[in-house]
Amino acid sequence: MSRPKLEVADIFRDHGTAWHSANAGHVSLGQLKVMSAIERCRTAALGGHVERCERCSHTVIAYNSCRNRLGPLCLGAGAGYWGAARAPELLPVPYYHVVFSLPAQIADIAYQNKAVIYDLLFKASSETMLTIAADPKHLGARIGFLSVLHSWGSPMTHHPHVHMIVPGGGFSLDGKRWLACRPRFLLAVPVLSELFRGLFLHKLRAAHRAGELQFFGKHARLADPQAFAAYLRPLYNKKWVLYCKRPFGGPKEVLRYLARYTHRVAISNRRLLACDEKGITFKWKDYRLEGRARYKVMTLPVHEFIRRFLMHVMPAGFHRIRYYGLLATGKRIENIARARELLTLPIISVDAIKAADSNADQAQTPEHRCPCCGGRMIIIERFERGSTPHHHPSPPPAVIRIDTS
User: Fold this and answer.
1) Closest of 67, 14, 107 to residue 311, by C-alpha
2) Which of 2, 4, 85, 145 would bridge with 269, disulfide CB 3.0–4.6 Å?
3) Rounded distance, CA 134 to CA 192, Å?
4) Phi, psi of 223 (to 5 degrees)
C-alpha cells in the first residue's frame, strides 16, 4: 500500500519548530517526545535495512518506524501483532461494544487533570459494568472485558470516553456454570448510565476533597469546595451518554474491532487532504448526523491543528488499555481456560495463550513481496541510526507511452 501524499510527520517537520517556539513553556516533555518520534519515523534518523528481490534483484530501502503509540505510520503492524495475540483469548459467544462518555463540563476540567480524571473514568465505568452484571436482577454473573480510553472526537477536540469490548456472559457467582446474556441484550443501558453517573461524581468529589485536582484559568474558582459542588450539581440530573451495541459477526470481526479501537490515534494520515496557506484540511465525521451528511471537511490553522493533535498525548506512565473482571491480567489465562471448559470447547493450553500474549509487543519483520515481480524480498543490509546504507534503491520503472495519434 502506497503512503499518503500528506502525513502528520510532514506537518511536524515543516511547522513543529515554529509551534514549539510560540508555545515555549507550555509544552510537556511527553509532547516533545511524540513530536520528535513522529518527525523521525521511517527516516534515516532511526536506521533501517535494505531488501532485495531474490528473483529480479529489485532493491528497496526500508527505514525503521518510531513505534510510538501516537505515530500514524506505526498503527497497522502493531494492530496486527496485538490482534493475533488476542486470538487465543476469544470465546465463541456474542461480543458487545459498550461506550462510556463524560459530559462536556467534566471534559473541561479533565483537560487540566488528565491522569486523575481519566483514571476515574476507567474505575467508575468498570465498577458499573461489574456491579450490574453481578446483580441477580440483571445477569447474575462475573464478567470480564477490555477497556480502551480515547480522549478525542473526530475533529480532534477533547472528548474523553472509554470503549469496552465485552463477552456476552460470564461465570455464575458460584463459579460452576457459564451464564449467557439474553439474545442481543447485554445489560440495561439506563441502569448502567445512572450508576455510572453516581459512581463517577462520588469519586470526583472525593478526589477534590483529597486535593488531587488542579484548576487554572476560567476554572480557577473551582478550587473552592462550594464552587466545585455548585459546578457539579446540575450533572446529577443530566443524562450521561452511554450506549451498548453488538457489532460483531464472529471472531474475525471481534479481532478487527479490537485492533481498530486499541490502535487508533486522534487523526490518521488518510484523513489529511491538504496543507497550504489556509491551514490543514482534513476529513471528519459528525456523529450527530445520519447518512452521508455526517461526512465533512474541516480546515484548521496549522498551529491549532498541532495543538489539537498533541493534547491527546497521555500522561507519563498512563495505561490506556486495561482489563477487568475475568480478563484482569493476573487471572486472565486461567479464567479463559475455565470458560472454554464450561462452554465445552476444545481446551487451548495455558502455555499457548501465554506464548501468544508475550509475543504481542515484540517487533516482527513481515515477509514482503517484490513490487515488480512478486518474488520474495530478503534483507541484504542493516544500517544504524543516522547512517547511510551502502546499497542504493532500484530506480523507478520507466513509464512507456504509446502515441497512436
Assistant:
1) 107
2) 4
3) 12
4) -65, -25
